[in-house]
Design a protein that fits this description.
Blueprint lengths: L7 H11 L2 H6 L9 H29 L2 E3 L2 E3 L4 H10 L18 H35 L2 H13 L2 E6 L15 E4 L5 E11 L8 E8 L12 E6 L1 E3 L5 E4 L2 E6 L10 E14 L5 H37 L23 H33 L3 H37 L10 H11 L6 H14 L7 H14 L6 H27 L2 H34 L6 H18 L2 H11 L2 H4 L13
Parallel strand pairs: 3-6
Antiparallel strand pairs: 1-2, 4-5, 5-11, 6-7, 7-11, 8-9, 10-11
Helix pairs in contact: 1-8, 3-5, 5-6, 5-7, 5-8, 7-8, 7-9, 7-10, 8-9, 8-14, 8-15, 9-10, 9-11, 9-14, 11-14, 12-13, 13-14, 13-16, 14-15, 14-16
């Protein structure tokens, strides 16, 4: 079975030395409740719970999967007991609204815990993970009665939540949904339709499941402007707020999937189920985006978590596995061969995993700071600025970290060689689990269109400027520092090129809108590599500053500088290929007719 140790030292480096979390937390309304001791206790207890409780169930969930008995989903052995421990520990309420039984701690702390959960048991983590998004949607858009009825239960974890969007005939294009909501004359609606790919849509972990469902009212306009959001509980609450009668919603079947076997991916049937409108009629998509944005960041964290555990186990294996002699000569003369970590290509794979995981962690923790500011700042201008930056980074966090997360888990298998392909080692499960992260909550292509088309070009580049200005200021502040030249000089050039590429695509798009789609994925990947370069430069600065003080753990900081150099010299050059493909435009993509794609199938 794979092993895992939460990277607490790296969390503290990123949070305290790179991103200055102590100052960040001191500026939040919860400052008195989020002291360094509290943060440390949460990190350490989260590390223990995920290592000791969740990790042993990861392969169990993959092997046993979920099963459907009647309309009841039975989760893998141990999942229910682990969830009971999670609830007993108060973890679901960590970032919840104190007005509804939440602890009111910053969102960022929940994201730190989320990485540990995703590393140790991604499939299990999806059950409570979706509830946070449901609670956020209700907190922002629900009526006072709905908040009073449901939020405390969601925060406590005794009830869980889902979001029900996709239907057999539509995925991203939600304007095509067919689920209907008919007023029932009792301040409610009757919801009828079928939703597919509903994660945690049915399970045996909690006593009730609260579905947030997109549907259309009888008078709905066509397309996305006619979508409304409805709250549809599995069990209707009784007069005391507890479990009442069973609603007309059921799991029709379970999907048989490539990965995340321990999570129930359900076809959900709504057969005149009682539902309640959330927000205004026909404004449901805006309400659902609150939940979807939380979920998109969460999926990026899934990619990060899988990178981390794959790296940890590949590293341990590479230190022990003996194969051949090092090209420069025997390193362990008392053994018949050298450990494979002596070989340059194995080091390339390990350093790729390490650089992407540790860089991705800084990216996520920066986004988490922005989320805290959006939720908690007393300043309207600070909230608006943070919201703009978070909006820009959300598709990058989601898509870039899942793309490189899949790459990193594949590298983990490769380090193990043939053993990586064998199930008992656990490495191939990470590849299978990671594959879905590039798909759900919007594919990489959809995230790329959101970044380039909606966020950057529709704002005429204004949404990009606050972030590129940050990078520019950092580079200017350190341009006279010889020790930082190897980082800030290439970063400054790429930052300027980012603006040039944006303008070039925008000019082409004025003549042909297809140019946006042609450039979008390469644009997102370029943005991801430059963003990671920015955080690696900040990490290098922090490491240089620490080494100047002769710390006891100097080896940690030297390793940071070595990893930063690897990233800049071996991974950041990928931007060259993405830039060239962006400049190539869409002509070669669109020239061939749809019919000509199939030429040559028959003689």
């Amino acid at each position: 079975m794979p092993s895992y140790q939460a990277p607490l030292r790296d969390f503290r480096f990123a949070m305290d030395e790179v991103l200055d979390y102590p100052r960040h937390y001191a500026g939040l309304p919860q400052a008195d409740d989020v002291t360094p001791d509290v943060v440390s206790a949460i990190l350490e207890e989260g590390a223990r719970f995920t290592r000791d409780v969740l990790l042993p169930l990861n392969q169990v969930g993959d092997t046993h999967g979920c099963r459907l008995e009647g309309d009841q989903v039975v989760t893998p052995p141990g999942f229910k007991e682990a969830y009971a421990q999670y609830v007993e520990g108060g973890w679901p309420s960590l970032s919840g609204d104190p007005a509804h039984e939440g602890q009111g701690l910053p969102t960022s702390l929940g994201m730190v815990l989320s990485e540990m959960v995703c590393s140790t048991n991604l499939a299990w983590g999806m059950y409570p993970g979706l509830s946070q998004g449901a609670a956020d949607a209700l907190r922002h858009h629900g009526s006072e009665a709905q908040k009073a009825q449901y939020l405390a239960k969601l925060n406590a974890g005794t009830w869980t939540g889902t979001m029900c969007l996709t239907e057999p005939q539509c995925g991203t294009d939600l304007g095509l949904i067919k689920t209907r909501a008919q007023p029932d004359g009792e301040e409610g609606y009757r919801i009828t339709g079928t939703k597919i790919f509903i994660s945690a849509g049915e399970h045996d972990l909690a006593e009730n499941i609260v579905h947030l469902v997109l549907a259309k009212l009888p008078d709905a306009p066509e397309g996305t402007k006619g979508i409304s959001l409805f709250l549809v509980p599995k069990y209707l609450p009784d007069a005391e707020g507890g479990i009442g009668e069973r609603n007309a919603v059921s799991c029709g079947s379970l999907e048989h999937k490539m990965g995340i076997h321990g999570n129930a991916t359900c076809v959900m049937n709504f057969d005149g189920a009682r539902g309640f409108l959330v927000g205004e009629p026909h404004k449901g998509l805006a309400c659902m985006f609150t939940m979807m944005n939380v979920a998109r960041i969460g999926v990026g964290i899934q990619g990060l978590g899988l990178m981390e555990i794959s790296f940890q186990n590949a590293l341990a294996y590479a230190r022990e596995r003996l194969q051949m002699r090092a090209l420069s000569g025997a390193q362990n003369t008392d053994k018949p061969a050298d450990p494979i970590i002596a070989h340059p290509d194995v080091r390339r794979m390990l350093l790729t995993q390490k650089a992407l995981a540790e860089g991705g962690r800084m990216m996520v923790l920066y986004a988490a700071q922005l989320a805290d500011t959006v939720e908690c700042s007393a300043s309207d201008s600070e909230r608006e600025s943070a919201e703009t930056l978070l909006g820009l980074l959300t598709p990058i966090v989601k898509a870039f970290l899942t793309e490189v997360g899949f790459e990193a888990t594949n590298e983990g298998v490769q380090v193990f060689g043939g053993h990586g392909y064998i199930r008992e080692w656990g490495m191939e499960q990470y590849v299978r689990d990671a594959r879905i992260t590039r798909l759900y909550e919007g594919t990489t292509g959809i995230q790329a269109l959101d970044l380039l088309g909606r966020k950057v070009l529709m704002s005429q580049g204004e949404a990009l400027k606050p972030f590129t200005k940050q990078i520019h200021k950092f580079c200017k502040a350190h341009e006279a520092n010889d020790a930082m030249a190897e980082f800030v000089t290439p970063l400054a050039k790429l930052n300027a090129e980012w603006g040039d590429l944006t303008m070039a695509v925008g000019m082409k798009a004025m003549q042909d809108r297809e140019e946006v789609g042609a450039a979008s994925v390469d644009y997102l990947m370029y943005a991801g590599y430059v963003t990671l370069a920015f955080f690696w430069a900040r990490a290098a600065q922090a490491a240089h500053d620490a080494l100047a003080g002769n710390p006891d753990d100097a080896a940690f900081y030297r390793a940071k500088l070595d990893t930063a150099r690897f990233y800049y010299q071996r991974l950041l050059p990928r931007t060259r290929a993405h830039a060239e493909m962006i400049r190539a435009g869409g002509d070669t993509l669109m020239a061939m007719s749809a019919e000509d794609f199939g030429r040559g199938f028959a003689i």
